[in-house]
User: What shape does this take?
Amino acid sequence: MTDLAEAAQETNTQDPGELAHRIVNVASDKKASDIVLLRTAEITTMADYFVIASGRSETQVQALSKAIVDELRDEGIKPIGVEGRSSARWVLLDYGSVIVHLFAPEEREYYGLERLWSEATQVARLV
Assistant: This one.
């Protein structure tokens, strides 16, 4: 097991599905738009779930990422890594078994993660 995987296991003992749904709920509470939960476990070893959501502006993307990190940290769950917060066009939160992608609308359209991971099972979509 890699050091990062061990760190994730130590800080995140919650069931991956429960964690993914918790993240969806926090994003929804903070008014993220077009939230998609994909189950990726059957097609990659990278993560069991992807949560993909959009903010209406860079400020909202930053606020969404902060809210998710803060609320989960209050529950004892810490991310392994956080990328992209300074530009807030595409913020990635890595929770080991769950990877969160928060996009500004233009970046989400451009990168098209839902298209790239179209073989994944869509568990939920909140528009």
Notes: The mean pLDDT is 91. The chain has one domain: 3-126.
